[in-house]
Specification:
It contains one helix and 31 strands. The protein is mostly beta strands and 374 residues long. It has a domain at 47-169: Methylamine Dehydrogenase, Chain H, CATH 2.130.10. A hairpin with a 4-residue loop joins strand 6 and strand 7 (112-116).
Length: 374
């Protein structure tokens, strides 16, 4: 199965088999035995997504899917769970329109999007959009919501004003990033290209990024799109003013990227070697490599506290890195197989999504962590 974000349910056996077959080859090519402890095990089954837990600046709430129970758990930014809301079957990803506070939940099991009021936390609409929705993202400037479909060749576009949906045939895609400043939607599939969709015209084009493209991140300040390439242990950086991608080094099986826009630094979680690569986004050079926990799958940056958080999926933990000197401050328990995180900037709480039927999300207390001065 996919070692990074796109782990699939057992019913999606074709994609699971393909990903697992590639993984065996990737281990032989890329994994570094000195850095890897034990065999590279696949995570437990379950349809998971990096948008499984999100923070809404509009309401100060955090939303986390509980896939097995068809629900979304809602927390305050102080870590208190305030509501559990029943949505559709097998919710897998969440998006927030930070202009309105409206929350959108993609339900993989019944092919719908649940629309939650940001103030009321109630389901105000349920929109049918077709089978196996996977990733959802909202453009706060236009109010449009975009949804990909597992095994589908289309993207569904939800009108935030009317809660009606239309489809655009864009080819297969899993992950989404939206540049609200330019009205540009970036769609990443497994085939080695990023589809660039222009909202106003619905015209799109493809930009090649190489084989086995996996993680997708947008630097909103620069408009640069970064894609991890797990076969080559590097990143492809896409800029609108340069036709060819810039290639940046990372580490074995890079899964996820966090961006420090102000410092022009990238932090890359390397699943294959239990590390985070610190990458200069301007030069492409790796300036530091920080050891973390067992099989890092997700990564997030807090621009207020200057910290990076890393979810170690096999280690059942999160590692906290001080970005001022790239040292590990702590590694803390985070529930069973953490795979996604939401950061409330400046908060003493971290919100983690887990691959667990019993504990779908965890709130990690960070209040005891002190910065180390070297």
């Amino acid at each position: 199965m996919n070692p990074c974000f796109r782990t699939v349910t057992l019913r999606n056996s074709l994609r699971a088999d393909l990903a697992f077959g590639f993984l065996a080859g990737a281990i032989a090519l890329m994994a570094q035995p000195a850095a890897v402890k034990g065999p590279l095990a696949a995570p437990s089954s379950g349809l998971i997504n990096p948008r499984a837990v999100v923070f809404s600046p509009a309401t100060g709430k955090v939303y986390a899917v509980d896939t097995s129970h068809g629900a979304v758990d809602i927390y305050t930014d102080a870590g208190k769970q305030v509501h559990r809301v029943q949505v559709g079957s097998e919710p897998v990803s969440i998006a927030v329109n930070i202009s309105t506070g409206t929350v959108y939940v993609a339900n993989a099991g019944d092919g719908t999007v649940s629309v939650l009021g940001g103030v009321s936390d109630a389901v105000v609409a349920t929109v049918p959009i077709g089978s196996h929705p996977y990733s959802v993202a909202a453009d706060t400037a236009t109010g449009k919501v975009f949804v990909t479909h597992t095994f589908g060749d289309q993207v569904s576009i939800l009108d935030g004003a009317t809660n009606t949906a239309t489809d655009v045939k864009t080819g297969s895609a899993d992950l989404i990033a939206i540049n609200s400043r330019t009205g540009t939607v970036y769609l990443l599939g497994y085939g080695g290209a990023v589809t660039v969709l222009h909202e106003a015209s619905l015209k799109f084009s493809a930009r090649a990024v190489g084989r086995h493209a996996w993680g997708l991140t947008l630097d909103e300040s620069s408009g640069t799109v970064y894609v991890t390439r797990i076969e080559n242990a590097d990143l492809a950086a896409l800029r609108s003013d340069i036709p060819e991608p810039m290639i940046l080094h990372a580490g074995a099986i890079p899964c996820a990227i966090a961006v420090n826009s102000k410092a022009h630094v990238l932090y890359v979680a390397n699943y294959g070697e239990n590390s985070v690569a610190v990458v200069d986004a301007t030069t492409g050079a790796v300036t530091a490599t920080v050891p973390v926990g067992d099989r890092p799958k997700a990564i997030a940056f807090d621009p207020v506290l200057d910290r990076v958080y890393v979810a170690n999926t096999i280690g059942d933990s999160v590692t906290i890195i001080d970005t001022s000197n790239n040292t590990v401050l702590a590694t803390l328990p985070a529930g069973k197989s953490p795979y996604a995180m939401a950061v409330v900037p400046g908060s003493s709480r971290l919100y983690v999504a887990n691959e667990s039927d019993r504990e779908a999300s965890t709130v990690v207390d960070l209040s005891g962590i002190q910065r180390r001065i070297q």
